[in-house]
Design a protein that fits this description.
Length: 576
């Protein structure tokens, strides 16, 4: 029997040894012991007849080499490509290994497939590479626009679905643009409604969880302020996975006569739902901000309630993971951990925001939403900060990007420097984390058409509002930046942006803003007129508008006039 056959027969008994591992070198040695096969006429073998063979990886057939390499961590697999041409060619011959590198190393997010499409690894990777190339070149299929039958008000996005309440606040309307078929640009508009028995004070929904959460005022004579109701987004009934159809919010906490639902902020992240009640008049006097979180699928009715001093001017919160929550006020970011044993939040780190010159101050701070389907991926988080004060003609808005994993790693930096965090412990100064780990952009004011995030990629319309603007795509993926700087692949229309940039209003700050994150930028030649946008794996959906003028001819003897009507609709760009 040939040695190759022996390797195949005994490959499950090998011992895999990594002798040296660095960014430039990966030397792998495989020690395989097996007994030489003799002809049938030969004497029975004994231990002295066992041959011990040590061979290098390069001596193996490609099939066995790939089987061995498949046991490597993805980062080691990337390094292994630098060992020699033989190993590199072996890896690049395997769609399975390359696809795992795409997903786990480059943090690429799989392109959604259509029903009945090829789900094989080579087909999935081909689709992924086509989409990545389209993003880099800013090439897209522009689908036929489709008009919205109702103008949106207080709308929200989730996975390309637009939702907003009807005028009577007892109905939610949802709209989703879809391809009419796979062979044309024609779009259809999927539309459905959800009706309620009570007036809704606040709502939030997640397509990934098929969940809609409604907050309604509790009935009179109850001890709690609101009922939080978990319903199915698609079936207009109680959510089948919800442990309870509804839970109580602010039970025995608030003065029920002085509630203001307009100050609510909420977020859905997988099994968790959180809502922040700002400037609540407490039942025992005084004012406070409350953050209440539920595991809406838990039979144990897990919930926690955190109270904040309104003097801190708490603005917003965001889930980073199932266990980590970020809260922001006008001077700092606060990182909390969910503690299930005590149903509470534990403060774990505090980070200062960039300090402003007097008399300027932060008036509104918000996060880009972190979708629950991003739990397994590192991604960008955007913090948008409106500044006012002094003699500013317009209040500028500064948006700082940071990697989610960097924020989580900075928790260890904080603990190593200050120990356990508490209300009285110091903040990690902005100078110790902001300039080197963030990238800041400035706009004249908050604009919904900017800073839509999916993974490491961000989309914005560049320029002032109410005008036609090009679409700018920024890719913060650090591995793609390294590849670009190394000259790997085709550069297409991308340009590398790194180093510090002077922002028009940077003089408002006492310390430098973030410029530590390099990124790749592509801008479309086409311009768009839009009031909002959202981004998915391979699609940008714009909420476009058109001003239509009509000359009205009144009765005889009266002067004609021009009537203007704003038509809103969807404009879909598919990068595939």
């Amino acid at each position: 029997m040939e040695p190759c056959s022996n390797f195949i027969r005994f490959k499950n008994s090998f011992s895999f040894v990594v002798e040296s591992l660095s960014t430039q070198l990966l030397i792998l040695t495989l020690v395989v012991s097996f007994e030489s096969h003799k002809p049938a006429s030969a004497k029975p073998s004994n231990m002295s007849q066992v041959n011990h063979l040590t061979t290098t990886l390069l001596d193996f057939p490609v099939e066995i080499l790939l089987d061995i390499l498949g046991h490597l961590d993805v980062r080691d697999l990337v390094r292994a490509r630098r060992v020699c041409n033989h190993v590199r060619q072996a890896i690049e011959s395997s769609s399975e290994l390359l696809y795992s590198i795409d997903l786990e190393y480059f943090n690429a997010i799989p392109v959604p497939s259509t029903p009945g499409s090829d789900r094989s690894i080579p087909a999935l990777r081909k689709s992924l590479l086509q989409s990545e190339s389209a993003w880099q070149k800013a090439e897209y299929f522009e689908r036929d626009s489709i008009v919205l039958p109702h103008p949106p008000n207080m709308h929200q996005w989730s996975c390309g679905v637009l939702g907003f309440p009807a005028e009577n606040s007892q109905q939610m309307m949802f709209f989703q643009p879809q391809l009419a078929d796979g062979h044309s640009n024609a779009m259809t508009l999927r539309q459905w409604n959800c009706e309620f028995d009570s007036t809704v004070a606040h709502h939030q929904f997640s397509v990934a969880e098929d969940l809609m959460v409604l907050i309604v005022r509790a009935r009179s004579m109850e001890s709690h302020a609101y009922d939080v109701i978990f319903t199915s987004l698609s079936e207009d009934e109680d959510h089948p996975a919800a442990a309870f159809a509804s839970v109580k919010a602010l039970d025995n906490e608030a003065d029920l006569e002085l509630l203001n639902p307009s100050t609510l902020r909420s977020s859905i992240f997988g099994d968790y739902y959180g809502v922040m009640f700002r400037n609540v008049n407490k039942a025992n006097g005084g004012v406070a901000d409350f953050l209440q979180i539920w595991n809406w699928k838990s039979k144990d009715a897990f919930q926690c309630l955190e109270v904040f001093d309104p003097a801190r001017k708490t603005m917003n919160f965001s889930f980073l993971t199932n266990e980590k929550i970020l809260v922001v006020n006008t001077s700092e970011l606060l990182l909390y951990s969910l503690v299930h044993s005590s149903n509470s939040l534990q403060l774990t780190a505090k980070f200062s925001l960039p300090a402003l010159h007097s008399p300027f101050e932060y008036t509104c701070i918000g996060f880009s939403p972190v979708p629950s389907d991003a739990r397994a991926h590192n991604r960008m988080v955007a913090l948008s900060m409106d500044v006012s004060g002094g003699h500013l003609a317009k209040n500028p808005c500064f948006t700082s990007y940071i990697e989610r994993n960097t924020l989580l790693e900075l928790e260890s930096t904080y603990v190593g420097r200050y120990g356990k965090a508490s209300e009285d412990s110091p903040n990690l100064p902005w100078s110790s984390w902001g300039p080197n780990h963030t990238r800041t952009f400035e706009e004249s004011s908050f604009d919904p058409c900017k800073h839509s995030i999916f993974g490491f990629r961000c989309a914005s319309l560049i320029g002032g509002r109410n005008m036609q603007r090009p679409l700018c795509i920024r890719d913060f993926n650090p591995h793609r930046v390294v590849d670009f700087k190394a000259g790997n692949g085709t550069r297409w229309n991308q340009r590398l942006v790194e180093g510090s940039e002077i922002l028009p209003s940077s003089g408002l700050f006492l310390e430098p803003l973030g410029s530590g994150l390099p990124y790749l930028e592509t801008t479309t030649e086409e311009k768009f007129l839009s009031t909002d946008l959202t981004m998915e794996a391979n699609r940008v959906t714009l909420l476009s508008f058109e001003i239509k003028s009509t000359i009205r001819m009144p009765r005889a003897g009266e002067q004609s006039f021009v009537e203007y009507k704003i038509l809103q609709g969807f404009e879909v760009l598919d990068f595939e």
